[in-house]
């Protein structure tokens, strides 16, 4: 854990805030499961699918990853009769929270650790995330003789480089060519679907607190 400024915080370290709040780093991946057979007679066994993926992460990567069951969610399609031939039979979400192995640094001849460079660590983080997506995407899973194909991708909300590029292009050029109104930057955040308890003061109320909400978002910049 660290109290470093936001712009110098590596993507693998926890961001400490006031009032005991913190933001913990993680990798999130979307999973889509397809049947390798055109005919599907029974729903997928969610528990066995989870165990198969957990074993894959632990034994088939360059660095063994241990994922708790709660960090791997599989949601099967309940009504297979309404499913079209090419439709997936299940969806899932994978969270990888233990990223400490990315912080390991080599040592110089004099035994001193090399200084951690945030930019290099960010690149290492992105390269590793790309690696794990490439390793998992398209693999075939065999569960009790039934074969499934797995598709894996990074959610748009977690692809910060792509979002940054899109924001910069939109505010630089607008919708009709080059903007003549000078530099513009995004200044509005719309948050939907987040549990209200994330912004509550547990000892005071279960409802969202303005103080907690302000504390969280002021970490990223000035609130107008």
From TrEMBL:
Organism: Prunus persica
The protein, known as: ZCW7
InterPro entries registered for this protein in UniProt: AK17A/B
């Amino acid at each position: 854990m660290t109290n470093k400024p936001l712009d110098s915080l590596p993507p693998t370290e926890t961001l400490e805030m006031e009032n005991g709040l913190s933001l913990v780093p993680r990798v999130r991946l979307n999973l889509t499961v397809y049947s390798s057979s055109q005919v599907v007679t029974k729903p997928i066994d969610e528990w066995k699918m989870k165990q198969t993926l957990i074993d894959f992460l632990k034994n088939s990567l360059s660095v063994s990853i241990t994922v708790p069951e709660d960090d791997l969610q599989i949601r099967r399609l309940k009504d297979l009769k309404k499913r079209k031939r090419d439709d997936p039979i299940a969806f899932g979400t994978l969270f990888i929270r233990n990223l400490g192995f990315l912080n390991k640094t080599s040592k110089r001849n004099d035994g001193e650790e090399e200084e951690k460079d945030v930019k290099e660590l960010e690149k290492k983080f992105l390269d590793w995330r790309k690696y794990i997506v490439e390793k998992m995407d398209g693999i075939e899973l065999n569960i009790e003789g039934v074969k499934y194909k797995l598709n894996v991708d990074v959610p748009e909300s977690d692809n910060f480089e792509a979002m940054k590029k899109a924001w910069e292009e939109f505010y630089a050029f607008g919708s009709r060519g080059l903007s003549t109104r000078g530099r513009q930057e995004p200044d509005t955040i719309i948050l939907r679907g987040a549990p209200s308890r994330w912004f509550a003061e547990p000892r005071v109320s279960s409802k969202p607190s303005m103080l907690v909400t302000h504390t969280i978002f002021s970490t990223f910049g000035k609130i107008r």
